Amino acid sequence: MGTPGGCDSDTPDGCDRAAKAPYGRDLIAWREPIPLRHPEAAAYVNILIRPDSLHRAAKSAIPDGYTIIAATTAASTIAVHLQKTPTFDAVKDYDYVLQFAETPNVLVVNPTFPPRNVKELIDLAKARQGKINMASAGTGSQSHLSGTYLLQAGKFESLHIPYKGGGASVASVIANESQWTLTPAPAVMGHIGSGKLRAIGHSLPKPSPLLANIPPIAQTIPGFDYSGWQGFFVPKGTHHAVVEKVRAATIKAAESPEVRKQFASQATEIVIRGPEEFRKVVQQSLIQNAKVVEAVGLKGTR
Predict the structure, then answer these.
(1) Which pTM was predicted?
(2) Which of 28, 176, 218, 272 is 20 to 30 A from 95 in CA distance terms?
(3) CA 294 – CA 282 distance, rounded (Å)
(4) How far apart are CA 5 and CA 216, in angstroms?
(5) What is the Cα 227 distance to its own chain's centre?
(6) What is the pLDDT of residues 121-130, one digit of tens each?
(7) Which domains are assigned to the chain?
(8) CA-CA distance, 7 to 16, in Å (whole number)?
(9) What is the C-alpha to C-alpha distance for residues 10 and 143, in angstroms, rounded to an integer?
């Protein structure tokens, strides 16, 4: 499930925008400013965004309603598998508010690269015996794991080239240093529109109106589903009335044309799931990412 961009190190700006979007105006209804710890959070609440270090801090935060964790696929269910000694449990250590977004990963290639669909990419990679480059935002990033998942599911090989961040990895495909990457949509939608990249697939299990001209990878590899999600946790023990207020404010914001337009521009779907349904999404994400992290030999390396 997803974020403006699965939200991880691939797209930090998209992640921040996604987390803040539901709060820009609708939490003004709270009528009580709350001290901010995230310097750019345009909200009346302390939103802790992304890094697993913030997950650790939030785990022990006072459950007074002043702390909300902007949970993402990468920070919540990838980072923990990379730790030698996990410092948090995304399923058990927090109370769940809701999931509010899902962001696909988009498979893009350099426009001069011959493949125009997933099957052609797989066939060419096999013909070249894996001698094509797959870019990622770095070892252990969401684009690394999503690309690895595609390699496993499609039964083909490419040389992984890790870059220092999503901007650099996407730029490498534009420059044809690497030939493809599977990365959160917000990192590439502008480049697709300008013709600097060609999209040949996305990671949602079925077609999406936000990606009308891009087919799901699942059309070629049945069952393929590897997208990002975003939602809110709060410290365990936060009063139920506070959780309900945050949930109601987020749902109200998600219904506004302004927020819907902002999310759509990043190819991010607004997906509302309640606490228990969201918890199941996180559990499944943990299982899926554990397998991929182990397959690439990164389990417990940090």
Answers:
(1) 0.80
(2) 28
(3) 18
(4) 16
(5) 7
(6) 999 999 999 8
(7) 12-103+227-295 (3.40.190.150), 105-219 (3.40.190.10)
(8) 8
(9) 7
